[in-house]
Amino acid sequence: MTETATSTHTDSVQHLVPLLDRLTLEQKAALVQGADFWTTVPLPEIGLRAMTLSDGPAGVRGPRWDEREPSLNLPSGSALAASWDVDLAYRYGAAAASEARRKGVDVVLGPTINLHRSPLGGRHFECFSEDPELTAELAAAYVRGLQDNDVAACPKHYVANDSETDRFTVDVRVDERALRENYLAPFERAVDAGAWTIMSAYNAVDGVTMTENDLLETPLNSEWGFDGVVISDWTAVRSLDSVPAAQDLAMPGPAPAWADLVAAIRDGRLNEADLDRKVLRVLLLAQRVGALGEREPREPAPLDGPAFAREAAIEGTVLLRNEGVLPLDASSLGRVAVIGQNAREARTQGGGSATVIPESVVSPLDAIRAAVPGADVGFEIGAVVQEGVAEIPLAHLTNPATGEAGIRVAFFDADGTELFAENRRSTALVWFGGDAPIAASATVVFETLYTPAETGDIELGFAGANPGKLYVDGQLVLDDSPVIEGTDLGAAFLNPPSITATVAVEAGRETAVRVEFSRESHGALSGALSATLGIAPERTDADELIARAVAEAAASDLAIVVVGTNSKVESEGYDRTSLDLPGRQDDLVRAVAATGTPTVVVVNAGSPVVLPWAEDVAAVVQGYFGGQEFGHAIADVLTGAAEPGGRLPTTWPAALADVPVTEVVPTDGRLEYREGLHIGYRAWLKADAVPAFAFGHGLGYTTWSWGAAQRTGDTVEVTLANTGHRRGKQVVQVYAERPESAVERPERWLVGFATVHAAPGETVTATIPVPARRLAHWAGEWTVESGAYTLRAGASVADLPLSLEWRIAS
Ligand code: BGC
């Protein structure tokens, strides 16, 4: 223990110094690196057990990626943000804590609080909003919800990881004001809420990779008083230069980049005090989550997971347009046409590390059928959305070894000796940590008996980043390697390319299917494997699919078309290049609407998509990636059993060409945030451009009259009355304007919000904290200009009936 280190320790770790003094240099070096993919190193001699870290953030996957250990699949980040409901975000965090405890997880790797700088960002679905204030408030609530239950939050990715292209190396150039006022602001609020950890990002900011960046010290430690652990994004620690930086825990571990840590301290290249500082923080985290010493962590309140997932999905469902058709009058519906692949195979979450495996998923089709029992509900796929293979449903599979539903997976070494085998209940498998001897295996074999429901040709194949051989009834039908596009192995791993062969099958006849994957080593991912056996979409002519849907719609009283994206569009590891719906979905909606049958469109996407036919349909509902209860939530909103609770957390463009910020591809390794402060609605206002749907927009089933807004101290009170016939929810939004500012400002910016509920005829008051800091700009420090500000309140950035003046004295 050196003098310098003790003197720089924050008060919160002083009591751990005696414990630190008992550790050898080797033990200390081990403690600041993972033991494996998801756990930290235990030291039983000091009463320290291993801590387990796990993705989320929309639920908790747990240390194994395994359908036999399912997780609650909550709505994705953009859906949570659409609720604008801080209390809901707190309960969402508490629900994650409950899942974490059930799965033995100490640190949930979330929330993801990078910004929707551009709708093209690949992880847009996982992030909350384009607005730092909305993101910050929800982030703080999520952190508290977790940590009040002794589970650590890990807000990520610090900082400026707002898109995915070249994400490991991109050097983001962002001016100081935009960095402070936009991108750092949510992290600041999360730290203020007490976050026990933060994840450092892959990218660089101003030329220095984040795990070595001074931003880890200032503002995080020195200004905000963070006393927690900076956990690296997986493999983001690149060299020993991150040791003197405020980078604390290298994951996964042992980290190759820190292999030389002990030697470097012994020979004086590195300072032991820097290591001690990290160790103390890791020990403090262990104490906080109940992994050090006697104290048992708190038991979260019991959770009805599906009920909460349904409520959260309803609160995040945005009614974008309604020409009077919603809520549906179920009693008047004789026949309903439900159309769209996503109606039957709902997409409940985006792709990548955020994936959790739900026990079951409620599709819109099933939920609508249940919600209108008196109606005859028909289904047509209408257009193919899926790209590549999707897993084969369990009901059609028999494990040849056990005779039970599922598949047998066996692992062989290079000599052909079977090392390990397991019985699985899914054909889309990922080993990313866990018990299977991936690194030692040369071949991994899937075997199952497939009993199809229908006779015909299917596109059978496999996906993965390894070559494979597919045998059907003993015949070799494929011997090939899927082609990996791009250089992001993580993306190829989590969302792998696929290849297929056309295979004739017979209804009810068992077909023996066997795939042999030859495992190729993929560097940092050599202990991991992703492999799927599956079926690609049928090759029916696209016009024919539309024609069938049109016939079904024409014969019905109502058409409900569920459109959406697929796993190749919204995922970690790459950005979008278009905002169009994949495949022929736009043609499909136009054709269905043209039948004259009232048409309701439900959008199943985590990010904005272009809806060129929006004016031609009776209603549009944005359902986001609504989690495992997505179908129920949609049916509840359509029938009026529930109020659509959501308001857009992000501006919705009419066309990609209108979007102010689309630059997500670095030039010569650099990505310049040229737009400065002006992202999202700020940029639309600056350009004087009108989107399809404004930030904050969302309709309900009742009407409101706005009363008055007044300010007392740090609080704005807004009164409003429900003038309709139903109970309703309103999100009261307060924005500031400062036209006479001496500095550049957004034309208008969100300073506070609150949700209210009111019965018909009831007047309610929304109480919204708006401290003066919300008016501040960054000028080397937070500075509130003196003089007049206008505060405006209403239902979206474009609908602000109330205003008041706020004078800041000089
Ligand atoms: C992602 C993180 C995630 C980590 C562990 C990374 O590739 O960027 O968000 O927590 O993997 O899965």
UniProtKB/TrEMBL annotation:
Signal peptide: none annotated. Keywords: Glycosidase, Hydrolase. Its EC number is 3.2.1.21. Transmembrane segments: none annotated. It is an enzyme of class 3 (hydrolase). SUPFAM superfamilies: (Trans)glycosidases (SSF51445), Anthrax protective antigen (SSF56988), Beta-D-glucan exohydrolase, C-terminal domain (SSF52279). Pfam families: Fn3-like, Glyco_hydro_3, Glyco_hydro_3_C, PA14. Residues 402-550 form the PA14 domain. One of its GO terms (biological process) is carbohydrate metabolic process. The keyword Hydrolase applies. The keyword Hydrolase applies. GO terms for molecular function: beta-glucosidase activity. Belongs to the glycosyl hydrolase 3 family. PANTHER family: BETA-GLUCOSIDASE. This is Thermostable beta-glucosidase B. The gene is bglB_2.
